Amino acid sequence: MSDNKYIIEIATSDFTTTEYAVEGGADRIELCANLSEGGTTPSFGTIKQCREAFAISLYPIIRPRGGDFLYSKEEYEIMMKDVKLCKQLGCDGIVIGLLNIDGTIDKVRTSALIEAAYPMGVTFHRAFDRCKEPFEAMEQLIEIGCERILTSGQQLTVTDGINLIAELNKVADERIIIMPGSGVRKENIKALADKTGCLEFHSSLREKVKSKMEFIHPSFKDSADSYMNNSININEVKLLRQALLF
């Protein structure tokens, strides 16, 4: 079986991890800051630098803070400004997710962001996994023009949510792309593809590497985070794709 039909999206946290993901053969980048919080909007400078350096499909996340997906008027206005900046910078798409207080999709504001983003593509992220009624939410996202949904099947990881992912993909019937994410690894990606029928997969493959700093301040010698940087193993990206072949 050829792997050409599959698309691998890698979530990155800065310029360097994006560079590694591209070198590893990713098809698309979800560009984030603060992946430890689930991802927040990267800086203007980061988006611009990545856009200028890489020809790959680039989708910055538009999320003004960590936490829930219930946003104030001011937070929504920030999101709208960031969407317009991404369009000006020539991004291929954006990643968003807004909910109402009752666990339904915030259709009005999501629709407005999609309209502002056009002709960029729009992925609705794992805010979907916090929705009350996933099938109803999917129909609404189809209606307002989202091109894909990133989901772990409303569970913490894709392996636990695989049955719902498969059902969503079946009901979607190619009207919207269902993209499994959260815990996608080379050890399970082929089984996910076989069971769900999905063709796009999302992974962060996050790891930490030791800083190249030679001077370690004595007050911080026991603070591991002070001297560790985010990284992505280039070979792990390659292995993710190769795992789909067998």
Describe, in plain words, how this protein is organized in 3D:
Helix content is 35%, strand content 18%. The chain is α/β, with parallel strands linked by helices. The chain has a single domain (7-245), classed as Alpha-Beta Barrel (TIM Barrel), CATH 3.20.20.380. The strands form 3 sheets. The chain has a 4-stranded parallel beta sheet, with helices on one face. The radius of gyration is 18 Å and the shape is globular. The model has no long low-confidence stretch (mean pLDDT 96).
Order of helices and strands: EHEHEHEHEHEHEHEEEH
Q: With helices defined by DSSP (H or I, 4 residues minimum), what is the helix count?
A: 8
Radius of gyration, CA atoms, in whole angstroms: 18 Å
**Largest sheet, if any?**
4 strands, parallel
Number of strands: 10
Fourth CATH level, the homologous superfamily: Copper homeostasis (CutC) domain
CATH class, named: Alpha Beta
- Indicate the CATH topology: TIM Barrel
How are strands sequenced across the largest beta sheet? 3-2-1-8
Instruction: Give the CA-based shape.
Output: globular
Describe what is shown at a glance.
Helices cover 35% and strands 18% of the residues. The protein has 246 residues and is of the alpha/beta class.
